[in-house]
Amino acid sequence: MTRSTEERLRETLDALAAGIEAAPPAYKKARAEWRRRERRRRLVLAVLIAIVFALADLIGLWALNQTRDHDPIIFDDRSRIHQTDPATGVIPP
Amino acid sequence: MTSPLIRAQQAAAEPDEALATLFQTQYAGMLRLAVLLGADDAEDIVAEAFYQLYRRWKKLRGADAAVPYLRSVVCNLTRMRLRHLQVVRKHSTPETAQPPGISAEAEALLHDDQRALVAALKELPARQREALVLRHWLGLREAEIAEAMGISAGAVKSHTSRGMAALTRVLEERR
């Protein structure tokens, strides 16, 4: 029974496929469309990257601007600057 | 001796020629595949598949990998389209909802039994339908079907046997 269904399915699919009109469009036209889409995709990608960079810059600048003057953000060496060197007898080079 | 400029032009022309040949030889087959899988906009799907091939041409393993890649893209896009249509149908009124797929003109040439088989095929889940079409229309091996569908060979066997059992049941009920 399954064998018979397989054969009938094959015949049906062949008959259906034969009834489908499928002439390929002009290749040059299709290729021009692919190139246009590819250019557009790259342009959109470049704009998105530029926007992300600009946003990151702006956020960084805003964060820097929020801090008080003379307030070290990353390294705080004030304690070491004002600290006296221990008298170990070792002379720094 | 060829100059570097001529060699560069030849290298650029070779993929273009290969793509042009593929487009001429495979377009009809891919369009028929998309229709048999149930796509209502087969031409758009095939155009998108060729664009994806154009984009990834340099990343392909070789020219031999182009046809399996195209087949795989057509299967994926058709499945996505069918899922989208299912969602649309769920939220639309019964009058506006139309089942996607094979046109009435193409079906008009079929016998009653064949029409019943097509109707049963439309009712199958997308994966089972894909497995049956790839197996019985394209005559692909299990490994090739698995590659096209992005699943394991065991899953292909399962989808094929379940789909075939459902079709057999429908044909038996008609007798």
TrEMBL record, chain A:
Keyword terms of this UniProt record: Membrane, Transmembrane, Transmembrane helix
Protein's UniProt keywords contain Membrane: yes
Domain of life: Bacteria
Residue ranges of the TM segments: 43-64
Protein name: Uncharacterized protein
The organism of origin for this protein: Phytohabitans flavus
UniProtKB/TrEMBL annotation, chain B:
InterPro entries reported for this sequence: RNA_pol_sigma-70-like, RNA_pol_sigma-70_dom, RNA_pol_sigma70_r4_t2, RNA_pol_sigma_r2, RNA_pol_sigma_r3/r4-like, WH-like_DNA-bd_sf
Pfam entry (one): Sigma70_r4_2
Molecular function terms from GO: DNA binding; sigma factor activity
Keywords for this protein: DNA-binding, Sigma factor, Transcription, Transcription regulation
Annotated RNA polymerase sigma factor 70 region 4 type domain residues: 115-167
PANTHER family membership: ECF RNA POLYMERASE SIGMA FACTOR SIGM, RNA POLYMERASE ECF-TYPE SIGMA FACTO
Recorded family membership: Belongs to the sigma-70 factor family. ECF subfamily.
Protein name, UniProt field: RNA polymerase sigma24 factor
Organism (species): Phytohabitans flavus
Organism ancestry: Bacteria, Bacillati, Actinomycetota, Actinomycetes, Micromonosporales
